[in-house]
Write a sequence for this structure.
């Protein structure tokens, strides 16, 4: 089953990577629906049995779909349980309340998104970024020290932007929930984690760009990190709703040009 509310977009793969706690059993069809993706294994998750971990993932997936579709206030435990194919009591057994389920789902998705972006920033395996300026030492020919392997901080910034685009291509419902629901006062702990774990990746790359002389001195990297993340979320949602056939590489090229011209000016 493909992800809900695609506004007419062609079906896309919505299979989340395997959760650390659920590696002993293949995910069910319900688990393979869109969002939120499972976070990397943690000691706490490792203690949870594979069957319960799969149930929790089904509930995360159902919750993000229903909330993206109806909004948090209108979404009910009954609707989430029905979407997950479980009894209403299963929600309360695993989380205690709708609020606790939503908070756990946010933590779950934020942790995984942070891991994906951090891996891209470090030059780890991740989505390929078109190399439009092969052979350069800096963006648009600008000089600047390159990291081992020839990558500059602006190359890392490009990679993080592409990783975020691909993440929300696969988990669009989670992108809509982040944009529309998590900024309520109730979820300030989740906002703090988003700033530390996700926006912190962008801020770290921008600080490195300043140190390399590729970005103007005095750049407010914290505000810039928030702006870049928000821009990519908004563009991802707009593409899915209005331009589902537009290649991600075209979006990435536009965003990269915009970012390079502004932050290096």
């Amino acid at each position: 089953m493909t992800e809900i509310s695609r506004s007419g977009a062609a079906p896309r793969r919505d299979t989340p990577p395997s959760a650390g706690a659920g590696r002993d059993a293949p995910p069910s069809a319900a688990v393979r629906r869109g969002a939120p993706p499972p976070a990397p294994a943690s000691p706490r998750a490792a203690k949870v049995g594979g069957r319960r971990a799969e149930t929790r993932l089904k509930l995360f997936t159902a919750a993000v779909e229903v909330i993206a579709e109806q909004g948090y206030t209108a979404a009910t435990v009954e609707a989430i349980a029905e979407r997950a194919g479980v009894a209403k009591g299963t929600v309360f057994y695993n989380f205690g309340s709708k609020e606790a389920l939503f908070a756990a789902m946010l933590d779950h998705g934020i942790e995984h998104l942070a891991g994906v972006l951090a891996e891209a920033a470090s030059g780890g395996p991740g989505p390929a970024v078109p190399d439009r300026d092969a052979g350069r030492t800096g963006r648009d020919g600008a000089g600047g020290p390159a990291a081992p392997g020839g990558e500059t901080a602006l190359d890392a910034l490009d990679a993080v932007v592409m990783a975020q685009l691909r993440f929300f291509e696969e988990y669009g419902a989670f992108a809509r929930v982040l944009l529309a629901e998590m900024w309520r006062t109730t979820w300030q702990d989740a906002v703090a984690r988003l700033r530390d774990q996700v926006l912190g990746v962008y801020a770290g790359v921008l600080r490195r760009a300043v140190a390399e002389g590729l970005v103007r001195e005095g750049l407010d990297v914290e505000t810039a990190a928030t702006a870049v993340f928000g821009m990519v979320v908004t563009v991802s949602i707009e593409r899915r709703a209005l331009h589902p056939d537009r290649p991600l590489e075209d979006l990435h090229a536009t965003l990269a040009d915009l970012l390079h011209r502004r932050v290096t000016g």
Q: What stands out?
A: Residues 106 and 177 are 9 Å apart (CA to CA).
